[in-house]
Design goal:
alpha/beta; FAD/NAD(P)-binding domain; 2 domains; 5-stranded parallel β-sheet; 7 helices; 17 strands; 27% strand; globular; binds flavin-adenine dinucleotide
């Protein structure tokens, strides 16, 4: 099925966008990490969300999620690892599944934690965020998996099955990491190489490798959509929350400050309206071209 809109991110912005898409009659699919991993869940008390003061972040999130479920929002839990625009349709890879939509709303929040030295320079030249997409390129070669996402050990196993020679780097060994995969305790990392990755350095040494898979809970919007313009480290948006890529809208924390719930909820709603207007325009143009 091709949805009218794919929404990435199950925080306040994404949930608000999904509820509004439903109200506007758009078919929408919300894709997001498990609810329990949302950063707002760590807020002990939220006092500035209108009408609902004194709740914990978790309670607020539960209320948002319940509301979305009651409105029939379709949700998929999982980490999106790659996106592609092709022939007027966006395709989003989540685990082994690909979902399609005619428009796209980014509501991914902000990535907490800085990129590793060498990461941005070598992204796409040995640095990858997607085991499923790029694993076969490294068949028979040494690769480092930097496991920061809860399901990283599964991706490491997948790379191993593909024939990559995997070594796993993380601050702690995950319980589900295969005993066949070597593990290195690592916190300070640097990706080395001039034009392509040649090694991963960590506090205890240098590991020569052809590829480094950075498996984080979140994937930067620019890694999902190469060419997406940023402004001040956030996705650059116009007043209607459109981005530099036609049909892609951004809302909430990923679209810039203030990084607050009320702003995220408001922008989610606005992004849904803008996606609808854009879809209407596209469809009208397609009809006119037929005549
Ligand atoms: C401890 C704490 C306390 C806070 N207290 C307050 C407060 O009192 N008042 C206030 O207004 N704000 C507060 N905030 C800020 C508030 O949480 C954010 O502004 C708000 O959650 C932003 O909503 P969002 O939907 O834009 O992003 P987020 O809530 O960050 O949601 C984005 C979601 O998208 C998911 N995601 C990203 N990439 C992917 C991917 N590739 N695949 C799948 N899922 C993905 C993320 O895991 C995340 O769950 C607080 C934040 C923290 C951390």
């Amino acid at each position: 099925m091709v949805y009218d809109c794919l929404i990435l991110g199950g925080g306040p912005a994404g949930l608000s966008a999904a509820v509004q898409c439903g109200a506007l009659g758009l078919s929408a699919l919300l894709i997001g990490n498990p609810h329990s991993q949302n950063p707002l869940g760590r807020a002990e008390r939220v006092d500035n969300y209108l009408g609902l003061p004194g709740l914990t972040g978790g309670e607020l999130l539960d209320a948002f999620q319940r509301h979305a479920a009651e409105r029939g929002v379709q949700m998929v839990t999982g980490r999106a690892i790659a996106a592609m625009a092709c022939g007027g349709v966006f395709a989003l890879t989540v685990g082994g599944h690909v979902y399609q939509g005619e428009s796209f709303i980014l509501a991914t929040g902000v990535a907490r934690g800085r990129p590793y030295p060498g990461e941005e320079r070598l992204l796409g030249r040995g640095v990858s965020c997607c085991a499923v997409c790029d694993g076969m390129l490294y068949r028979g070669r040494e690769v480092a998996v930097v496991g920061l996402a809860p399901d990283a050990a599964q991706d490491a196993a997948l790379l191993d099955q593909m024939g990559c020679h995997v070594t796993f780097f993380a601050p702690e060994r995950p319980a589900d990491l295969s005993p066949a995969i070597p593990y290195k305790k690592a916190e300070r990392l640097e990706i080395l190489g001039e034009d392509r990755v040649t090694a991963l350095a960590w506090e205890d040494g240098v590991f020569p490798c052809a590829g480094v898979f950075l498996l984080r809970e979140t994937v930067a919007p620019t890694a999902l959509f190469p060419g997406l313009e940023l402004a001040g480290g956030y996705v650059k948006v116009a007043g209607d929350l459109s981005t530099s890529l036609p049909g892609v809208f951004a809302c909430g924390d990923c679209a810039g400050p203030p990084l607050q719930i009320a702003k995220a909820v408001g922008e989610g709603q606005k992004a849904a309206h803008s996606a609808k207007r854009w879809l209407d325009g596209q469809r009208k143009t397609a009809e006119n071209n037929k005549e």
